[in-house]
User: Which sequence fits this backbone?
């Protein structure tokens, strides 16, 4: 029998606000243990949380970017559970009235993965186990999170991967999170069940907690899919459970089953008043959203006629796109601009993160000047590439490398002398060309190019050489 | 009643006394009388002397405010940087917060002198202060009787002249009821008018800090000094600028009397309040009969909501970061269990269990959710009553101070004794309790004046009429610092 995989993801994304969700402490990653905290985020008796408005704003951005409706009247709730990394013994979260609901993320195939809800909450601290003792670091306690809950619309590990990547991309684009899974600023819980093809009822699901890499998500889903089928095929039943994934063995194991599931005793947080967001504020946030990745990709291919392969290399990195678009706006041609970025600048930006940050000392203004020289045929593309490579290393303007005299163009008489020299210096190539070997002329081009240091556009010498040979 | 604060302040301003001299007088009296009365549980005399010296400088530099140099006390659930703050619970043994509650910060900036932390029911859960880990304070009027609670230590300290005033907290009557039992004034401001930052929470949506004083004038002075919006408390709100003006203007004031408030009230208490109402009527006030049928719902609503919130608020006391920690444990869970078993008193455990139960899945709708709905009913019926009147007059408690030890065996009766005070907390209203005569045993009776939200000034001004006309007299107890 064939089985369908049914999966939904709960994705936690740390928001990139400067301060924590309920106090003024920094959200910076790292730092010596317990140096980024205060009486409020360590839950000292008597302290009170005060909601950081930026958190609400960022979460609304995330909601609008994933096509959610925004609940403009909402509140926070307490989720009660006792664990040493949670100093108040409750997490302030949202239960029955999340800030955002009913959205979706579109995959490349056009399939939409539904977003059930996005709510805001606080992160917990971290337990550090060392030499037989357990220490608690509350630096991360109170860092704002959004939890993005998807519908069970995901039907393969590949779709899960694409969904997570798309989320990552969207969140980075709109500037609400850096979504670094290795630093924990994005993590996923994967809900998964299987059902026989054609069945109408979902199977019992399991939940794999705290996945911190996309490849582990894929692997864990694959493993759990096979495991569940095996259990069913061998006559067993899937037990609703929370699982952990062991990266080394590639297997899942049970953390707890439904029987010992916690009762979180949710109730409205009395320390924070109902949050009322004016409609105008939502409109204002909507208006401030940048073009979203899917729209941008579409525009690059359809309107700017960038070839799809190149467009895909570009659209993932918002800063690169901003740079390119600024150069376009300054008159740089699209084709030369994107080819120079992908061909030359990307060789200086090896990692994803490098491209993400795009920290090169080349301004869009200088880029535009350079591209325009190439567009107008004043320099050839090779010189443009070489120049751009130097600019990216040294951070100097185009004028440092290409002087006005260089691009004034060659005097026709001077060019004819060089062409004549080329013909004289390559008798064999001339003979070959005359004998019908068209490619032999490249040897002559090469001579001219060298002698003119790339200053001449090849169209002119081509005409002169051909005239001379005839 | 006369203003102790104004009288002391006059002596300080004129240079007759220094604040340090006055402080030493209080210290001497506390040392002499507190061992018996047990009003204070933590003495902060070093802090008091430092505060007094700072106050004397302020006075000499002409920067004095009405509270500069005046010795006072804080309830043991208000956070004081570096000074014991234990909610009179074993589980907070040794807790010295490293931040100040907003109210203490404000008072300190105005040159107030902190004598110590006063006794209370453990985590403010009780109506007699007998659940205190440090033992109950005694009622200075009759030491065989309780002070009321939970701010019993503060009321006893003010009554016995061991402090010029006290700050208490009121979740279901914890300022007003002990004030009435000890024959002093207790004022619970509108929810949000005074910052709760630094108040160790019991029922967060009900808790409110307020003054216990020897006069309405003093209550207004202290209220003015601590009120206002606070960035650290998202539930606090702005209050009107300027000082609360007391004129005692009651002509044409509409005084509402709701019969529901008088059901089951002892005839002696009812009589005392009727007399007071008659006095106001003679002064030109109009008496309006109103009905608040939902009043009887307030008590169960209060116990469900307060306990639900408490069960969550007290979850953080686990022995890990501060306070008491059990010895001899086998794991973290075992340590937490033993710490709580040994650290929490019986009443606290009872309320945590009750609160946990009403929030549990399967019971949430039947208890907590229903209580929230009924809370709205109480709120709206109170609001309706205030469409017909400006203030409500009501008893503070159905009884005067119990004998020590009585409530232990009469838990339900003790819970029921909160019936007159909790509606105000449920609806977030301001209310004051002022002395209103004594019963046949000479024990003080209290009367409440209740106003609508943010009518704190009107409540105080209405009470001030009784003070001005000498209709309301504080208990006169021997000893303590007298003028």
Assistant:
């Amino acid at each position: 029998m064939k089985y369908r995989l049914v999966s939904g993801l709960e994705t936690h994304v740390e928001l990139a606000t400067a301060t924590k969700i309920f106090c003024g402490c920094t959200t910076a990653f790292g730092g010596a243990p317990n140096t980024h905290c205060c009486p409020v985020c360590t839950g000292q008796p008597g302290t009170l949380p005060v909601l950081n408005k930026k958190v609400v704003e960022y979460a609304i951005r995330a909601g609008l970017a994933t096509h959610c409706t925004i609940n403009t009247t909402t509140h926070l709730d307490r989720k009660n559970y006792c664990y040493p990394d949670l100093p108040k013994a409750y997490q302030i979260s949202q239960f029955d009235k999340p800030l955002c609901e009913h959205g979706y993320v579109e995959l490349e195939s056009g399939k939409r993965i539904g977003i059930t809800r996005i709510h805001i909450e606080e992160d917990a601290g971290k337990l550090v186990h060392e030499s037989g003792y357990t220490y608690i670091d509350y630096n991360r306690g109170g860092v704002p999170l959004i939890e993005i809950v998807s519908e069970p619309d995901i039907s393969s590990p590949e779709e899960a991967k694409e969904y997570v990547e798309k989320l990552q991309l969207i969140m980075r684009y709109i500037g609400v999170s850096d979504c670094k899974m290795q630093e924990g600023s994005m993590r996923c819980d994967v809900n998964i069940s299987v059902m026989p093809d054609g069945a109408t009822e979902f199977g019992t699901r399991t939940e794999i907690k705290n996945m911190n890499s996309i490849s582990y998500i894929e692997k864990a889903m694959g493993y759990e899919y096979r495991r569940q089928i095996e259990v069913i095929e061998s006559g067993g039943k899937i037990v609703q459970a929370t699982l952990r994934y062991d990266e080394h063995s590639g297997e899942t194991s049970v953390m707890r089953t439904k029987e010992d599931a916690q009762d979180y005793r949710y109730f409205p947080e009395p320390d924070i008043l109902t949050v009322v967001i004016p409609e105008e504020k939502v409109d204002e946030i909507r208006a401030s959203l940048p073009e979203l990745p899917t729209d941008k990709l579409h525009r690059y291919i359809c309107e700017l006629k960038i070839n799809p392969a190149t467009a895909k290399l570009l659209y993932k990195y918002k800063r690169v796109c901003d740079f390119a678009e600024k150069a376009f706006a300054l008159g740089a041609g699209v084709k030369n601009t994107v080819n120079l970025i992908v061909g030359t600048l990307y060789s200086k930006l090896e990692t994803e993160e490098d491209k993400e940050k795009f920290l090169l000392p080349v301004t869009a203004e200088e880029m535009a000047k350079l591209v325009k020289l190439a567009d107008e045929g004043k320099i050839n593309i090779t010189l443009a590439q070489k120049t751009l490579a130097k600019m990216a290393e040294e951070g100097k303007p185009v004028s440092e490398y290409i002087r006005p005299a260089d691009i004034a163009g060659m005097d026709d008489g001077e060019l004819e002398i060089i062409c004549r020299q080329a013909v004289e210096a390559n008798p064999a190539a001339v003979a070959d060309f005359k004998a019908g070997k068209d490619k032999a002329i490249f040897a002559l081009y090469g001579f001219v190019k060298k002698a003119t240091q790339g200053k001449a556009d090849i169209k002119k010498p081509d005409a002169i050489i051909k005239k001379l040979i005839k | 009643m006369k203003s102790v604060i104004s009288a002391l302040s006059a002596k300080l301003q004129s240079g007759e006394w220094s604040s340090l001299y006055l402080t030493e007088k209080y210290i001497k009296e506390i040392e002499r009388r507190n061992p018996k009365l047990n009003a204070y549980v933590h003495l902060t005399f070093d802090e008091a002397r430092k505060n007094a010296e700072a106050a004397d400088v302020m006075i000499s530099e002409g920067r004095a405010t009405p509270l500069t140099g005046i010795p006072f006390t804080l309830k043991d659930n208000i956070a004081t940087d570096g000074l014991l703050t234990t909610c009179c619970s074993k589980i907070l043994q040794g807790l010295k917060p490293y931040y100040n509650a907003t109210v203490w910060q404000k008072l300190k900036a105005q040159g107030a002198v902190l004598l110590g932390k006063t006794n209370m029911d453990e985590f403010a859960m009780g109506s007699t202060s007998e659940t205190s880990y440090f033992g109950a304070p005694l009622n200075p009027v009759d030491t065989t009787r309780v002070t009321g609670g939970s701010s019993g230590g503060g009321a006893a300290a003010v009554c016995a002249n061991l402090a010029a005033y006290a700050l208490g907290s009121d979740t279901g009557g914890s300022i007003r009821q002990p004030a009435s039992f000890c024959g002093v004034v207790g004022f619970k401001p509108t929810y949000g008018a005074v910052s709760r930052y630094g108040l160790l929470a019991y029922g967060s949506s009900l808790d409110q800090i307020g003054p216990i004083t020897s006069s309405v004038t003093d209550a207004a002075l202290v209220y003015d000094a601590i009120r206002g919006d606070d960035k650290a408390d998202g539930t606090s709100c702005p209050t009107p600028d300027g000082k609360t003006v007391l004129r005692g203007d009651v002509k044409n004031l509409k005084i509402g009397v709701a019969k529901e408030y008088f059901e089951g009230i002892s005839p002696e208490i009812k009589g005392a309040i009727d007399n007071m109402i008659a006095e106001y009527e003679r002064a030109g006030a109009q008496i309006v009969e109103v009905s608040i049928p939902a009043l009887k719902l307030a008590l169960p609503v209060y116990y469900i909501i307060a306990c639900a919130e408490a069960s969550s608020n007290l979850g953080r006391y686990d022995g890990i970061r501060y306070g008491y920690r059990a010895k001899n444990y086998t794991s973290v869970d075992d340590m937490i269990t033993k710490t709580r078993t040994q650290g929490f008193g019986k009443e606290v455990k009872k309320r945590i269990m009750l609160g946990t139960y009403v929030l549990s899945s399967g019971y949430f709708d039947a208890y907590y959710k229903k209580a929230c709905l009924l809370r709205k009913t109480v709120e709206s019926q109170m609001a309706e009553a205030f469409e017909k009147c400006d203030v409500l007059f009501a008893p503070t408690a159905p009884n005067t101070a119990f004998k020590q030890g009585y409530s232990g065996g009469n838990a339900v009766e003790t819970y029921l004794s909160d019936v007159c005070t909790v509606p105000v907390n449920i609806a977030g209203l301001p209310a004051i309790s002022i002395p209103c005569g004594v019963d046949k045993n000479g024990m003080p009776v209290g009367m409440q004046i209740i106003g609508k939200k943010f009518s704190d000034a009107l409540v105080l001004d209405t009470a001030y009429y009784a003070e001005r006309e000498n209709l309301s007299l504080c208990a006169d107890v021997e000893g303590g610092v007298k003028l």
Remarks:
- The two ends of chain B are 13 Å apart (CA to CA).
- Chain B touches chain A at residues 77-79, 85, 87, 92, 95, 97-99, 101, 196-201, 203-205, 231-235, 308-309, 311-312, 315-318, 320-322, 332, 336, 356, 359-361, 364, 368 (CB under 8 Å).
